[in-house]
Amino acid sequence: MELAEKLEKVLYQATNPVRYIGNEWNIIKKEWDKKKIKMALAFPDLYEIGMSHLGLKILYHILNKEEDIICERTYAPWHDMENLMRSEEIPLFSLENKRPINEFDVFGFTLQYEMSYTNVLNMLDLAGLPIYAKDRGESYPLVIGGGSTIYNPEPIAPFFDLFFIGEAEAGIVNLIHRYKELKAKKLCREEILIKLNKLPGVYVPSLYLFDYSEDGKVLKTEPVCTGVKEKIKRQVISNLDQAFYPTKFLVPFMDIVHDRAVVEIARGCTRGCRFCAAGISYRPVRERSKETIIKLADEIIRNTGYEELSLSSLSTMDYSDIADLVKTLSTRYLDQKVSISLPSLRVDCFSVKLAEEVQRVRKSGLTFAPEAGTQRLRDVINKGVFEEELYDAVRAAFEAGWSTIKLYFMLGLPTETSEDIDGIVQLAHEVLNIGRKIRKNSRRKMKPIKVNVSVSTFVPKPCTPFQWVRMISKEEIEGKQQYLRNNLKKKGIAFSWNDPDLSLLEGVFARGDRRLAPVLESVWKKGSRFDGWNESFSIENWQESFSDNNIEIKEYLRRRDPGETLPWDHINMGVSKGFLQKEYDAALKGELTEDCRSAGCTGCSICFELGARLELIGGEKDEN
Ligand code: SF4
Description:
The protein has 2 domains: 3-233, Rossmann fold; 240-511 and 560-610, pyruvate-formate lyase- activating enzyme (Alpha-Beta Horseshoe), CATH 3.80.30.20. By secondary structure, the chain is an alpha/beta fold. The protein is built from 22 helices and 19 strands. Residues 613-624 have low confidence and may be disordered. A 6-stranded mixed β-sheet has the order 2-1-3-4-5-6, covered by helices on one side. A 4-stranded parallel β-sheet has the order 15-16-17-18. The protein has a 3-stranded parallel β-sheet with strand order 10-13-14, covered by helices on one side. Helix 5 (117-126) links the parallel strand 3 and strand 4. Bound molecules: iron/sulfur cluster (SF4). Iron/sulfur cluster (SF4) binds next to helix 22. Iron/sulfur cluster binds next to helix 22.
């Protein structure tokens, strides 16, 4: 029986079968032509999460734009669908042509979250591939990975043939074409991998060896032989305005997390928050011109019928002329009733005013992220937010008619004391008081004031100024959460927090090394999948797997010595280690580093790196 036929027979039994049928508006279904190279694009989470991911939209269209490439999608099947697939012997398949993944030449994963790694293993297995790269022979698809967690790819490195480090627009098409060329020459897999490793941004983990000390530290990473580059440079596009951007978004037939038109107005952020991995890994700041943004928005709205347009960026409010852009777009789409949404607000009155302009019906709340409870700690993390600014912004929001304010904080930040945790409590109460006072004096009848306090646990991430710090223990996290629970018990305040075990595991894999791969294998074999989902997460599986492999979680959460070799030292992010160290020292002294857009270059090195590599981006040249 054909795969499509088998699917049809079982799909009605799955929750939300729409996840597995494809056929969305604007889908690209190319003829299955033997001469074309085929890539299956995988997102290791549910359809509704993957379909909302902008990076995946860009990849899908940038690859399909090429005549000789067929690019199709696949997402992680939910538990019930996995059971059906296993019992009916249905392999993992693509949504477009309903082809088994092992018929593709390349199987490429977008990796965004450490807790999706078990899904990667499960998808490899469902596709009928051996999970370890070393066990995959010539006939198997090349398994590749990219995305934001691979700035330290080591914990999952043994499962991948190669990674592409950096922005996909800067080299993915070149990589796929090169692979096609090498395959046509009938070279063996090993030879192909050696050649691909020479491409800018390509990292083939099997070509690098790790040496560990007796106490478990990484001593060094080195290429297996001469001729293999020592460091892998992150690839960055130099001109966002001229970069490809899709305008024929797939429109799904079910609710997804972000179901709207999106234009990425800028990439990168140089505000310099010291905990933020994205703030380092997307540098430098690049903007699209207003004209390009309008052109893209027009096309996307015409092609999709969406009635909401989101202006996306790490810090949308920092776009050079955001007020003018928002005004122009709101006026332009007034008749079409397309609303504009701003995904990230700064903690200031300007942001509130702009949000007020675009959100004519104030149904949703506003979110502000002071991140820490005291000025001292906000200075340590270089979060340029001052208490009065926050109160002014909140006041402006309540006066403009908002009733719900969400405040976002982290606990466990470096140098944190009990005063900093108490500062979260004080801030939340003050915001509530401000809101209530304004309501009391208002003549309008409005909803009661609500302050939602959301506190996540700080996870030290690679390639940030805090990559060396200790992550706090489970007992410490629970103690701080309990304190907040007790002290935020008040009508009008709601408190939410993260599962400490999940945060700790994220911390382990964010800064882990290759010795964690067997733990992943073992926890996946015990049945763990969708670990980021509360209903699926089993800490017992994880504890047993660490213990079966004689690995102590706390070894991976410890403080690293600044002189120590880090498992990701061979990945060159473009931002220098010296800059990160300088920022770490400044953090300990509570010194602020200004945004280089206003204060001049602060020396992170990325602009120099980018300038030096321009001729390689998208080019045919090998790096060595
Ligand atoms: S090199 Fe200088 S100007 Fe460029 S992003 Fe870094 S700090 Fe800013």
